[in-house]
Every structure is written in structure tokens, then in C-alpha cells.
Amino acid sequence: MKVLSKLFFSTLLIAALLARSLAAALASGPVADESAVRHLLAQAVLSSGPAQQRLLDELAETGSKVVHDVLTAWARGEIYLTPAPDGSKIPVLLDEQLDSVGLARAVRIDNGRFLVDAAGRESRYKAEDLDAADTDMRLRRTIQQVLDMLALAAPGADTRVSAVAKLGYSQKPQYIPVLEHRLAKETDSSVQRAIHEAVALLQLGDADPAVQVAAAEALARLKDIGALDTLKRLAADRTLKPAMAKAVKAATSSIEGHIADVNFLGTIFHGISLGSILLVVALGLAITFGLMGVINMAHGEMIAVGAYTCYVVQNIFGSGFVSSITLPFTFNGRPISFGCHLPGLNAAPGSTLYESYFLFALPLSFVAAALAGLVLERLVIRFLYRRPLESLLATWGVSLVMQQGFRMIFGANNVQVDSPSWLLGHFTINDVLFGYNRVFVIAFAAMIVLGTWLLLTKTPLGLFIRAVMQNRDMAACMGVRTKRVNMLTFAFGSGLAGLAGAFLSQIGNVGPSLGQNYIVDCFMTVVVGGVGNLAGTVYSAVGIGTADETLQQVLGSPVMGKIIVLTIIILFLQWKPGGLFASRGRSLDD
Amino acid sequence: MSRTPNQLETWGVAVAALVILVVLPGLNAFTPVASALHISDFTINLYGKYLCYAVFALSVDLLWGYTGLLSLGQALFFALGGYMMGMYLMRMIGDLGQYHQSIPDFLVFLGWNTLPRFWLPFSSFPFALFMTIALPGLIALIFGFLAFRSRIRGVYFSILTQAFTYAACLLFFRNDLLMGGNNGFTDFKFLLGYDLRHPATQRALYLCTGLLLLGTYLLCRWLTTIKFGKIQRAIRDSENRVRFSGYATAHFKLFVFVLCAIIAAMAGAVYVPQVGIINPSEMAPEKSLEVVVWVAVGGRGTLLGPIVGAITVNAMKSWATRAYPDLWFIFLGLLFILVVVFLPGGIVSLPERLRAAWNNRRRPPEESSDLPLGPAKIGAPSADHS
Fold first, then answer.
1. Residues with Cβ < 8 Å from A43, sequence gap 6 or more?
2. What is the pLDDT of residues A543-584, one digit of tens each?
3. Cβ atoms < 10 Å from Cβ of A467
4. Does B202 fall in a domain?
5. Distance separating alpha carbons of residues A105 and A112, to the nearest angstrom
6. Which residue, A342, A437, A572, B310, could crosslink B294 as a Cys pair with Cβ 3.0–4.6 Å?
7. Of A394, A524, A577, the CB nearest to B336
8. Which of chain B's residues have a Cβ under 8 Å away from the Cβ of A562?
9. Does some domain include residue B7?
């Protein structure tokens, strides 16, 4: 009883919400396709007996939202009959909005317009003064059935799947014919599968043991994760027949095995997406560290530059970006402060323009980080090409300055970067969830690797970069402008970090110390891959990312996973000190 | 100048030792609080902290400046030493904690009723002292053996040590290690039966630190002047040549690595009772980098450099974090960049540079032949202004 009353109240709540949206929908004028449906609806309200039944059945196939809204109102007795001048009756709904004397306008069911009197003015009524369209117990039950069928006939396959699942969990066997009726017409394979699952789930409660066993076997075959709870509850039942108990047990273990598989695949997928972010970051590092021999501890801050660029671009598409810094010094008695105000485009959240901000943010984050890298190279790094250890220290100083800079400009807390809606969804293959954002990251990382490879092997700049990397002095002798090549290479490596930052802003938090979380991992990735070898970086990034994520899941604690990965890496370097693909050279000290 | 720089250093150290070990504590103990000469308890405590840092910096300098091994995990050993001492201090709290039980508060909080087995021997001070040296030494021995055996050096050694300390830091953040989780150990009360909050105890600790610094300095000085020191520097400058000359360089490096780990651990052990807290953030990767900054700013490859650097940078930090809390990191970062790029010799190389600049001014400038000292030339005139 408790469940029933709960169900009743929630239906009421939903209906109340629907009535509001209905009034809005009705007032906005009918769509061409809707007029036929509305006509049928009005007829159904006015007719009775078998004719009414036939009309309602017809309506159930439409899957239209109007039908749903009107029928819901009807079952609650909120459809009224108003007399027309010719003596017939016009079914109407009362508008939610009341005027000053408590009267509401009436919306005609048959065309969705407001009811007008002979003079063309909108008629206003009070609910108590009108006759409600009659409903009895039988009609209400029919209406409810039509509503269920309606949900099953909804236009979107996803909506239908969830409607089917809802019926499946209802534990009411009377839905089985409804579901089977739908199955005959259903063309979408995912919905068909959902119907099979729902029917089997309902049949578990069947009185006939043979049907029950068959249902359990069907569930085992379908590997329906949602059925696990029901099955477990059944398995706990001591009065179960042996054959049934066996079937339930088989189904449970089959589903549990499936869940383990799904989790495993999901973990691998997460790991690969993490690995591909690591890959993009590490690729930048592999270029600056591996190819140029510069240890850039500020590489992590380049990631943050990319992520914050995303944030700023997002704000420019929204309400604009404002920031100001006040230094604790005074000049001529006035505090020194800098301010910056970038006007916004004021695109509404959710609009196409706003959603497209990320497309602009991606190249900009590359450019911003590349520029930062360029400045860093000119100001600091160019003095340190022959002193790699000291480049490590100086760039750590840079990293401190930049982190504090972020804190002063953007605040010490994380900032909010919204994902565009086209990155938010996901698709499912065999119950494994693939988030669009992660798929996007993987695809983009693959493109970046390809692009970098093409740049290094197929362009003149790539030739110069490789020449300078192999022997800076010799390249200079041959006329390569090594300073310019250094500059461009460093900017490119930093730009890649910026791109990675743009991705990270879609997956995790953006804060001043964003880069710090990645810098240790990154250096490990490059070292494991083999310094100066991009292919090695690719393998080790994907490997470390996947191992990290998998171990975190398996051990149930992120920290232990990380510790184990770091330990494995340290031991791995015992075995292969030069990394996966050590560069072979004759130089002893390198 | 009749005296050689070496004699000059000896005199300087003797005077500094006198001031640090006799004058300052004396002024703290025997002058009235109102006197202008009085050194407050707070200041003594602060200086004690600086002296710990100086010992710590010396250990990094012996590794980096003299042997060419830039370890970015030295803070791990410092913190481990601190943790070992901290375990003893936790036991000494007795039942004066928040929960008034005989085991440390955080264990009560984690649901323990009895002391975990590995905590038991730490009630004894000699054992804690032994572990302060033994545990970091052992870890350094194992890690160093693995690293030097596979000839990991230069930048790779730095990255590996950083990863190692990062892993250890993550481990210590966990509660189930039973080492206090991210709060670490704090609320210490007694050391060898003396109340830690009493000024006399703090003064004694300060004196211990001063003596430790003096001892470490003398040890390092002795080590760097004997043949061992020559090999050390030869390894730094060209390891392969040393190896081809028949020296087992890995053994030398391993010895220095373990020695430096022990020195850092002892610094940590005297540090913890003075600051009254030890937690995993003490071994975070940036702490190791910070101590490298002190050494670089003071002047690496010298023995006075790290001491001067540690005290100068930390004194500046104490002042700047109060006066300009927002700008301190920017200031530290810029200082570091400028020192590394333009003044590789650090503060202690300034007098030498000034003299060179002065001589250059009097004589017509001659073009220096080679060497990537471009930035150094920029550094000299800028040093002239100061």
C-alpha cells in the first residue's frame, strides 16, 4: 500500500508539472502534425464505449507528447466540457494562469487555441462552474494503459528504453502483453533487447515454475545488469524450487561475470583516456626534454596556461572576464594595481555560439602556451642549453612565479570550466559507458601524435629540429639557425602542453597547481619511453596511464596505485636504464 | 692580503661558531628581557630552525656541489629523520593527549586499543636515535645501490629521486601506514624528561643544532680535503675518466649518498622538537627543490655557501611571508632564476667577482676566449652596482 500511495503522489507531482508545460505548449499554437492527433483526442473525450476504446488505442500509437499531457489531465478529471453555440460540447483544459477575479482561459483540445465567444473575446471560466468530462474506473485504467503504451512509442530510442526498463522493474505482470505488443512493432535493436529483458524480469514473478526458469535463463543469456538485485533477492528465498534456484544462481553468476568484464573494459577505457592526456603532455615534454635536453619544470604550468585560456575564452563567450591585481606597494601614495576587463559576447548558456567556445579555446590554448614558452626560452632557457641540471632549477623558479601569478589573477580556488554539451553525453556498447569527452580526448591525442610525427619527419623545420637535437654545433656549422630552431621547438613543446591543459579543463578541475599533479608523471613517462624517442613516449604514456588507472580501481585506492606504479617504474629502469627505446649513440657522456 | 682564503675561512668559521654557540645563547640566558642586548626565546628558536636548515643544505651541497649528484629527494631523508624522532616524542606524550590514553591520539582515533608492534621500541630514546640514522641510511643504501648500479645519473637521477620522494610522500599521507596520516605528529610535550616548551630546553636544542652544524661542517671539510674529496670532485667533473682510471665510482657515489642521507636525517631529528610538528608535506617534492635553492643561492661547491644560503633565504622568507605574503613565491622564483642564470657561484662568489670586475676596470678589457660564460659577463656589472 505504501508503495502504491508513493506512486500515486509522484504521479500527481509529475502531472502537475506536465499541466504547466502543457498550457505553454498549447498556447504556442499547434504544429501541423499535431492537428490530426488533437482532433482524435477531442473525439475520444466526447465518444464512449467501444468507439472510445478504439480511438484510445489509435492514440497510443502516436507517441505524441500532447496525447500524454491531455490523457494525464483527463485521468485526473481536469478536462472540462463547455457548451458550444450549436448545442454540442467542446472539450477544454483550463489555463494555469488565473486573472484577478480567479477566472482562467480555456484551451480547446481539438485545436490548442483559446476558446472564444461569439464576439471573438477569450472566454474565461472557473473550474467549479464547468462540467468535467466523465471518467470511470475502467476508463481510467484504459487511459493508464494508453499512457504506458505511449511512453513505449515515444520518438527517441533512449526514451523508449528507459520507459521499457521502468515497466520491467514495476513487478506488475500485466505489462507483459503491453511490452510484447510493442515488441512486434519495434525496429530498434536496443529497445528490442530492453523489452526482452523487461519481459524476462516480469516473468520471474510468474506463478508457473517453467516460465520462471525460462525467464531466469533468458536473463542469464541477456546478461541484464539491472536484473541482478531482483535475482539476488530471489536467491535469498529459501522456498525456491531446486531447478529455479539453480537457474537463478546461474543467471546471477553470469551477470556478475558480465559486470566484472564491463568494469574491466571501462577501466581500460578510462586508463587509455588518461594515458592520452598524459601522452599529449609528455609529448611536449619529450620534445623540450628529449630533443632539446632542457628540463622544463615549468612544463606543468604550461598545462595550466592552456586550461586557464579555456576558462578565459569561455568567459569571453559569456559575460566577459574581469581580473585585477593590487600589489602591496604604493607609488606616490597610491597602491599599484593592474586590472583587465575583457568584454563578453554575452552568448546565452546553451546557445550554439556559447557551446562552440571550446573550438576557439583549443587553438588559443595552444597559442597562449606556445607564446609563454617562447618568452621563457628567450628570457631564461637560452642561457642554459649547456647546463641541463641548472635548467631544471631555473625553470622551477619560473614555475613558482607562474603558479603565484595564476593565484593572483584567477584566485587560489579552482575555477569552473563548463564542458560544451556535445562533449557531455556518452554512448554505450555492451553496457560499457563511453563518455564523448574521453573519446574526443583519445581521438585528438592520436591526431596530435600524428601531427607531431609529420612535423618532425616531413617538414624542413622537423629536419632542422632533428639536426639540432643530434648535434647542435654541427648543425650550426651547416648553416642551421639553431637559435631560431630552439625557439620554435620550445614553443611547440609548450604549445602541446597547453593543448593538454585544454583537455584537462574538460575532465578535471582547473586550479593554480594543476600542473604540479602531472609533472612527476610526465617526467617518468619520458624517461620510461626513452629520452629523445617519440614512439617510446607514446607507448609509455598509454602504458603508464592505463596501469595507473587500472591499479587504482583494483586496489580501490588512488594512492596505493600511484605508489606501485612509481615503484614499478623505478625497478623497470634497473632493467632498462635507457627506457623502452634507448637512443643508441657512440657518445659516452650524454 | 697576507692570509690565504682557506685561512680566512677558518677564522671566519671560528668567529661565527663563537657567536652562534656562545654569544647568542648567552645573551638569551643571562641578559634581562628588557635589555637591548637580549635575544628572545622566539629568536633563539627561529635561529635553531635556520641552523637545522643549514645542516640540511650542507648534505645537499656535499651531494650536488661536490659529487655532481642532484638529488631531488633529500627532503625524504630529512623528514624520515624527523619522523623517527617524532615517534619517540609521541610516546613521551604519555596519557596527556586529548583522549588521555597511553597510545598516541591518532591511533585512538583510528580505532586502535594497543600500540602497533613497530611502535613499541620507540619508547626508548637510544633506539629512536639509532633509527634516525639507520632507517634513512638503509633506504638510501638500497635506492642508491639500485640507481648507481644501473648507472642512472645526471638529470635521470634527479627525476628518479623526485619520483621516489613523491611516492613516499603519498604513502605517508595514508592513515593506514599508522604514521599519523596527513596531520603527522604534533603536540609534543617532553624530550628526555625535559619540558619542550621551557626556554632552557629550547636553548639546549639550539646548542645541539649548532654543534651538529659545526660537526657536519668539519666532517665535510675534512672529507673534501683528503684524497676522497679529490675523487669526489673528479667524479663530478668526468665520471667516465675516473672509472677508466680504475676507481669503482658507484661505490664512492653510494657512500656519499648514504652519508648525506644520514646528515639530512640528523638535521630532521633536531628540527622536529624545535618546530613541534612533522607531517608528510615536509617530504613533498618542492621541499627538496627548496633546499637546492638555498645551496644554489649561497654557492654550491663551497662549504660556507650552503650555510650562508640556507640562513639568508630563510631569514628573507620569514620576513617576506609576513610583509608580502602574496609576493613571496614570485620573489623566491625570481631570485632563483637570477642566481642560476647570472650568478652560478652564488653569494659566496660575490667578493671574488667584485674583485675581478674591479681589476677589469683598471686594466684594458681583454676578450675572454671561450666558455659559455655569456650570462656571467652580464652578471658581473650588475653585481657591481650592489
1. A55
2. 888 888 778 777 777 778 888 888 888 788 777 777 777 666
3. 17
4. yes
5. 12
6. B310
7. A394
8. 167, 170
9. no
